[in-house]
Amino acid sequence: MSKNNPNQFDVAIIGAGAAGMMCAAVAGQRGRRVVLIDHASKLAEKIRISGGGRCNFTNVGAGPQHYLSQNPHFCRSALSRYTPQDFIGLVKRHRIGFHEKHKGQLFCDDSAEDIIAMLKAECDAGNVSWRMPCTVQEVGKSAEQFRIATSAGEIQASSLVIATGGLSIPKIGATDFAYRIARQFDLKLVETRPGLVPLTFDGKAWQSLTELAGIALEVEVETGVKKERGHFLEDLLFTHRGLSGPAILQISSFWKPGTPLTLNLLPQLDVADTLIEGKGALKKNLGNLLAQWLPNRLAEGWLKINGFDAGARIADMPDKSLKKLGDSLNRWVILPSGSEGYRKAEVTLGGVDTRELSQQTMMASKVPGLHFIGEAMDVTGWLGGYNFQWAWASGVAAGSAV
Ligand SMILES: Cc1cc2nc3c(=O)[nH]c(=O)nc-3n(C[C@H](O)[C@H](O)[C@H](O)COP(=O)(O)OP(=O)(O)OC[C@H]3O[C@@H](n4cnc5c(N)ncnc54)[C@H](O)[C@@H]3O)c2cc1C
């Protein structure tokens, strides 16, 4: 096949999202002939809706400890070769204003569109060709190259990078494409499940809690044991369907169906000790005292739901009751019935098993020339800019190698 053939490329990348565009820009700027293929009609919708429209594009403290994977050391190499500071440098070169919001999370001052425009400009600087919107019908491989049958004709390339992301938010074009390609080439998959997702609850116990909808407060939340334990100090939001807010999104990635969560609604205070030891001096009734520590509506609702009389004088209450109240606040154990699923999940846990891939190049060791990057693989970040940092770092790793 002649190099003048307009459908012949060095590198074909399927999926023009965060990882795909980064990979294309890096490979293109190295002088490789690159084509980016995406089935969507609008570019990088997930970046556009991310971070509430302002894209939390990295986290200054991002490191391997912020990622979940069956192969936890895999991400180390790519993350150390392309760091948050490298991406910040790129953002600065494009004069995009940004600010730090919370725990190292960096957001655009104006809009996530600035990040999309930046990545597009970087692809243009690498003369990247586009096929979009374009449906991929089939992928085949001969000894020398990949043949990709698409709605825009057949494309041939010596390297193929799969950057089609995970299953989250099918409404904006998420598909299982990466997993299908992995299966086609006999690569192992780690079972997928929704992550960074609100959790749902049912049953009578939950019914009484729906009156707390709308209340937010900082809590400690934990689940799991040993290596699988997750533990966060973040904001919790009561909703009509269950619990949400950063605390729940974070812990949802660690949560396994059938296991409980333990929440501490007053992490700065040992409630039982404070009530029992201070009992003599505490002139207040329960309702007034709790309202000093918790949002008013939560204090009232919590006492009612747990069968306490808000008007009871603390001095008159038996230690056993005070201990029960303290435990309900400091060690609230609840069993989620499920999650809101991929419809609402920010990420997909699991994916292409990284034990099949090179940590330097993201290439499948069994299939020379085939690479997987971004969320498609079994590397999932916490909430807070870590998922984009993985998309950039894995994109650069593959883009520098293809
Ligand atoms: C609501 C929301 C908010 C988020 N906010 C943040 C945040 O602020 N910070 C953060 O770090 N992470 C955030 N994330 C996670 C982050 O968006 C993803 O982890 C990241 O986009 C993954 O990059 P990717 O390139 O692997 O996949 P994507 O960015 O999802 O790109 C995949 C691309 O592949 C295309 N594609 C899919 N299937 C096919 C197919 N069959 N054929 C052709 N093309 C296909 C899609 O159209 C898409 O363009 C958020 C996610 C959601 C859903």
TrEMBL record:
Q: Where are the transmembrane segments?
A: none
Does the record carry Transit peptide as a key word? no
- SUPFAM superfamilies found in the cross-reference section: FAD/NAD(P)-binding domain, HI0933 insert domain-like
Pfam families given in the database record? HI0933_like, HI0933_like_1st
Query: What keyword terms does UniProt attach to this protein?
Result: FAD, Flavoprotein
| Superkingdom to which the source organism belongs | Bacteria
Residue intervals of the RsdA/BaiN/AoA(So)-like insert domain: 193-347
Q: Where is the RsdA/BaiN/AoA(So)-like Rossmann fold-like domain?
A: 10-400
Alphabetized NCBIfam families for the sequence: aminoacetone oxidase family FAD-binding enzyme
PANTHER family reported for this sequence: OS12G0638800 PROTEIN (PTHR42887:SF2)
- The name of this protein is Aminoacetone oxidase family FAD-binding enzyme
Origin species = Herbaspirillum aquaticum
